[in-house]
Amino acid sequence: MAAHPLHRLGFEPVGSPARSDARSLAELGFEPTATHVVSARAEAAARRTARERRLLPQMQQLIVRPQVAGSIEPGSGRKIVQPTDNPAINQALATDAMPAYKSRLEEVLRDIPGATLAATRDAKKPARLAEKISGQGQPAETVSDYGAAQVAVDSPRAKDAVLAAVKQHFPVLRQQDNFAFGDPEYRYRSYSLQVQMPNGASEELQIVPREVFEANRQEHHDYKEARNAELAGKSAGQVRAAARAINDAAMERFNSRNGVSSAGSSGLENTWADRVVKGSRVRLTDGTPARVVYVDPNMRIARVRTEDGRNVTVRRKDLRRPDRARPQRRAEGEPLQ
């Protein structure tokens, strides 16, 4: 999943008036080249184009190959979350599913205090999509955010309630918990899910602390500058540090308002956890077995993948030896680890 704030990449406000005309593939910057399609909806969406133009010729494919959601794309090792390997068809299906996605999310959130549908985006900018596929090695069937939404929450309790409700109303293909500590690059806080839609497309959802959501407008410049520098092979250390500082400060405000203790290093260090490296087998505090996939030496956090496929960011001192863990029940309202 993309680990960056989604609204920065072209979301329209939820309150904006709906488009009266459906977006065609040509308007999205794609030329339909498929010789066959995977479903009646895909075929109908592909025929919407009124004119043809070549903005992304390197992304056009002669044959649309159906993909099995949930399986692994062998070349990249990434999970497949879209129904075809053609970006134009995937975008058309995701855009077609967005009205129902927004409506369902609004219903889900209606009875959850402190949670609002803050932003949505019904189509990804073609240039950014090409950048992901060609420049960042993400095959078209593994791109998560052809369509996306953000839910802003006022408390950890609201986040947990949204998470539970979404899982009741949508099939979930993938989830990643960066709510408490943020992603390793920018420390952007969110709980991200990839949800399946009836037409075969999947949409991205981020549950975001409200202060972090509001700070994204300030962070956007630093994030974009860092991303462009990395794509050009240049150092992005300073702008990445600026983005991290903004996200950290926003999360401090969220935690302070909710009476949540910010997790820092204590005087008593878990010396075994300090030696954890990528590939180490560990257990979480609730006894869940996992494997370490990333360690941040400065933030003293690690990202682990559980046996049931979840990606979770945790404090290193909260990791347990795989043979000595004793399950602990998570307190209600505490951020998921």
Percent helix: 25-40%
Tally of helical runs: 7
Give start-end ranges of low-pLDDT stretches: 2-10, 15-29, 31-38, 48-62, 263-269, 325-337
CATH evolutionary superfamily of the domain at 6-20 and 69-211: Beta Polymerase, domain 2
- Biggest β-sheet strands, sense, barrel: 10 strands, mixed
Approximate strand percentage? 15-25%
Q: Judging from the principal axes of the Cα atoms, what is the shape?
A: globular
The helix-strand sequence is: EHHEHEHEEEHHHEEEE
> Structural class of the secondary structure composition?
alpha+beta
Span of the ends, CA to CA: 18 Å
The whole-angstrom Rg is: 20 Å
Explain how this protein is built.
By secondary structure, the protein is α+β, with helices and mostly antiparallel strands. Among the domains are: 6-20 and 69-211, 2-Layer Sandwich (Beta Polymerase, domain 2), CATH 3.30.460; 268-337, SH3 type barrels, CATH 2.30.30. It contains seven helices and ten strands. The protein has helices spanning 40-46, 87-109, 126-135, 156-169, 210-231, 237-258, 271-274; strands at 12-13, 115-121, 148-153, 172-178, 190-196, 202-209, 281-283, 289-296, 301-306, 311-315. Strands 1-2-3-6-5-4-10-9-8-7 form a ten-stranded mixed beta sheet. Helix 2 crosses helix 4 (156-169) and helix 5 packs antiparallel against helix 6 (237-258).
Structure summarized in a few sentences:
The chain has 337 residues and is α+β, with helices and mostly antiparallel strands.
